[in-house]
Amino acid sequence: MTTHATQPFEGQKPGTSGLRKKTPVFMQPNYLENFIQATFDAIGGVAGKVLVLGGDGRYFGAEAAQVILKMAAAGGAARVIVGQGAWLSTPAASNLIRRRGADGGLILSASHNPGGPNEDFGVKYNMANGGPAPEAVTEAIFARTKVITEYAKLEAPDVNLTMPGESRLGAMVVEVVDPVADYADMMEEIFDFNALRGLFHTGFTMRMDSMCAITGPYAVEIFENRLGAPRGTVAHEVPLPDFGGMHPDPNPTWAHALMAEMMAEDGPDFGAASDGDGDRNMILGRGTYVSPSDSLAVIAANAHLVPGYAEGLKGVARSMPTSAAVDRVAAALGIDCYETPTGWKFFGNLMDAGRVSLCGEESFGTGSDHVREKDGLWAVLMWLNIIAARGQSVAEIMADHFARFGRNYYSRHDYEALPSDQANAMLDDLRDRMDGLKGKTYQGLTVESSDEFSYTDPVDGSVSARQGFRILFAGGSRVVLRLSGTGTEGATLRVYLERYAPGPEGLAEDPQQALAPIVAATEEIVGIRARTGRTGPDVIT
Ligand code: G1P
Ligand code: ZN
Question: How large is the C-alpha radius of gyration of the chain?
Answer without folding.
Answer: 23
